[in-house]
Specification:
single chain; eight-stranded parallel beta barrel; two-stranded parallel sheet; globular
Length: 515
């Protein structure tokens, strides 16, 4: 009598090592998929870690390198073990190949927990959930299809499988019950969860308009941030309606563009003023600031990979070397002449700064005097002094309410807020409620196509992004579906699954009667 595969497998010894090697490979593959699924956030992750450790640190590259060798090692172990199984009845791995895989599995599980903890600590864990949400329809469709196809083989094989499992801990009857419970839970989860949890891309009415794009710091993946060169990026994309900049004031009273407190990251301050490299940006005069190279760092670091990937030509990249920090006046003139929206964040100087008391008034006077269309100036702020000054002197300016206020809080505010400026901190239902209430929402900073698509479906009015090149040419979301279509699809899948159970239950009996 010919032995079945399970019968042959039962006689083999050392199966636990193959299982260990498979677990190692699966562990590393899941880890790798997670890293690559978060590719749009690599710059943010590296920036966050670099600011935490105090120097430039490419944690993503380190993780990718540290995954390649263990994964290759795990795959080799699996293949070699399976090959041995075809020739001999027992495999006995070298001591190193017994201990090291266990150590690696434990290490990468701990590392994954640590990474998830830091994502949670920095409020970034939602990015993982957004990716899972986006692809959930594909994952569950494939899972349900596989479970329908495998239903009959599982039912036929289940009684045999339990006979090959050890009875040292659990007896045969309990094994049958546990395996049946596991299968029932798996099938219920796979077929019911997609109906209970509706993906973000499922819409409940007509598709909202595509969000307008605001180039964050001028589209900082394509040019050195907070420079006129970055502002020029806005002119290359149809759906980019404006740019966002960060404003500080020099020691001699001239507002200029700079995000960080220090000049270390985005200029050659270390080489030009080495003794002052750790001084705050506001302690420099405008003439000193104008001496600095604000472009070469972008070319040398290529933080977004846009140069190495050919999105920016080497010729274009080299042209950024030597560009200077622009003044706020230059920014206002550029924005006015190109009819763009200007979203700016003022950064107050230290209280000892000579222009501390006049900072907001200087900015407002310059904005009004520049001749820029005030209804194209966007200022997200929670500073009441600044808000009241704008309300009195330039009520046309679009004021953004920061954070994640409720509809009631927004509508009952005594100030004339025009929109909400949020770091993507609302739930799906809250976004939909804001859209239904005709409240405009600006969401920052979005660099993933998946999240852009989701916010499009949720009705966001503006999206602030470092990567306008990813979204400009999209004429529709990557995928979206009406709620009725979605529910009909899953009802059909559910019916097919129930029909499969019915067929499997009664068809064999009918065939037996005929025979």
């Amino acid at each position: 009598m010919k032995m079945s595969f399970l019968d042959k497998l039962q006689k083999k010894k050392g199966k636990k090592w193959v299982l260990l090697y498979v677990i190692l490979c699966v562990n590393l593959i899941v880890f790798t998929e997670l890293i690559y699924a978060l590719e749009p956030y690599w710059f943010e992750i590296n920036s966050e870690v670099s600011s935490w450790v105090g120097f430039d640190f490419d944690i993503v590259l380190l993780l990718r390198i540290n995954l390649i060798i263990p994964l290759f090692y795990g795959i080799v172990l699996v293949l070699v073990s399976l090959r041995k199984f075809t020739k001999i009845d027992e495999i006995s791995p070298h001591k190193l190949n017994r201990i090291l895989p266990i150590v690696l599995v434990i290490f990468y599980i701990i590392l994954l927990i640590v990474i998830l903890y830091f994502f949670d600590m920095f409020g970034e864990y939602k990015k993982i959930l957004y990716v899972l949400d986006f692809y959930s329809i594909y994952l569950f469709f494939i899972l349900d299809l596989l479970l329908i196809i495998l239903l009959y083989p599982l039912i036929k094989t289940l009684p045999k499988i339990k006979n090959y499992l050890t009875e040292k801990i659990i007896d045969s009857n309990k094994k049958s019950i546990l395996m049946m419970i596991f299968l029932i839970i798996l099938y219920l989860f796979a077929f019911i969860f997609p109906i209970l949890y509706i993906p973000t891309n499922v819409i409940y009415g007509s598709l909202p308009s595509k969000p307008y794009l605001i180039a964050h710091r001028g589209g900082s993946s394509l040019a050195p941030e907070n420079t006129i060169a970055a502002g020029n990026v806005s002119l290359d994309y149809d759906t980019v309606v404006g740019w966002e900049v960060d404003i500080r004031i020099s020691f001699d009273g001239v507002p200029f563009l700079m995000h960080d407190d220090l000049l270390l990251r985005t200029t050659n301050i270390s080489a030009h003023f080495p003794s002052r490299k750790n001084d705050r940006a506001e302690t420099f005069t405008i003439s000193e600031l104008k001496e600095l190279d604000a472009g070469s760092w972008f070319v040398d670091k290529d933080s977004f990979g846009t140069i190495s990937n050919g999105i920016i030509s080497n010729t274009k990249a080299e042209s950024y070397r030597g560009i200077r920090i622009p003044t706020f006046e230059e920014v206002l003139n550029f924005t006015r002449d190109n009819n763009l929206y200007l979203d700016f964040d003022p950064y107050m100087p230290d209280s000892s700064h000579p222009f501390y008391d006049d900072f907001y008034e200087i900015l407002l006077n310059m904005t009004i005097d520049s001749g820029i269309s005030l209804n194209k100036v966007m200022i997200p702020t929670s500073n009441t002094e600044w808000i009241e000054m704008i309300n009195i002197r330039a009520p046309e300016i679009l004021l953004g309410m920061r954070g994640s206020p409720s509809i009631v809080d927004f509508e009952s505010s005594p100030y004339n807020f025009s929109y909400i400026n949020t770091g993507d901190s609302y739930s799906n239902n809250e976004y939909r409620d804001l859209y239904q209430s005709n409240i405009s929402v600006m969401v920052y900073t979005i660099d993933a196509k998946e999240r852009h698509t989701q916010l499009w479906c949720l009705g966001a009015r503006w999206v602030k992004t470092n990567t306008p090149q990813k979204f400009n040419d999209l004429t529709k979301p990557l995928w979206y579906m009406n709620i009725w279509t979605y529910e009909i699809i899953w009802v059909i899948i559910f019916i097919v699954a129930l029909s499969s159970v019915t067929i499997i239950k009664f068809l064999p009996k009918k065939l037996e009667k005929r025979n």
